[in-house]
Every structure is written in structure tokens, then in C-alpha cells.
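Holo prediction — cobalt (II) ion.
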Amino acid sequence: MLGRLNHVGIAVRDVKAAAEIYRTAFGAEVCEPVEAPQHGVVALFVTLPNTKIEFIQPLGEASPVAKFLARNPDGGIHHLCYEVPDIIAARDDFIARGARVLGDGEPKVGVGGALALFLHPKDFSGALIEIKQV
Ligand code: CO
């Protein structure tokens, strides 16, 4: 039922600095940073042939990424994002299978305009999962 790996999210202190490393070391195609206050992040996507890397840095005091960086001062892999065709059907199916949806359980408009929600890392081998409707 899962679709493609849409992106891997990596938490960093400075998305521009992180992207510049990918640009110079790998010749990667780097987008401009986008502020997403609803998620408490600044996000910057790097496009790869088969997926994307989403660098995220904290935006605001209550950013969940700030807490992640407090535990992981050098940054690190923060989440994996999988595509689904119908996010409500996918969410209800995950809940029926015993997974926990973070927040109020309703999809939010993510960076780039697609609906997304997050699943509890303790239900997925310790990895935070983002589900995106594509
Ligand atoms: Co993401």
C-alpha cells in the first residue's frame, strides 16, 4: 500500500550550509529554502534521480526539530516520507493496524502544498514516518 519514497528528512542547524555541501560535493540540484511555520521548520529540498533529501532546521521556539537537535547536536536522519494516493484512507488503515498518528490525527498541508501526516516512531522501528498524498 505504500508508494514511492518521497524523501528522507535530515535535521540540521543550517539548511543552506547543508545544501551547499551536497551542491559542491555531489553536484546536486538544490532548491531554495521554504519556511513552514505550521510545522516549525525551514525546509530545503535536494532533488536526486529517485527521491529527494529534505533538510530541515528549526523555526520558532516550539519547533520539534529543535528538540531533535538538542538530542542530536550534529543533526541526523529525522524522518522518512512515503507517498500514498489517498491520505485519509491510508491513515484509517494505519490506525486499524494499530499505528499511532501524531498530533490531532488530521493531515496538514506540508512544504510544497501536499497533505501530510506523521506516524509514531515507536510503531515503526524507531523511525518517524511521514505519509504524503501524491
Ligand atoms: Co518531510
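READOUT: The mean pLDDT is 95.
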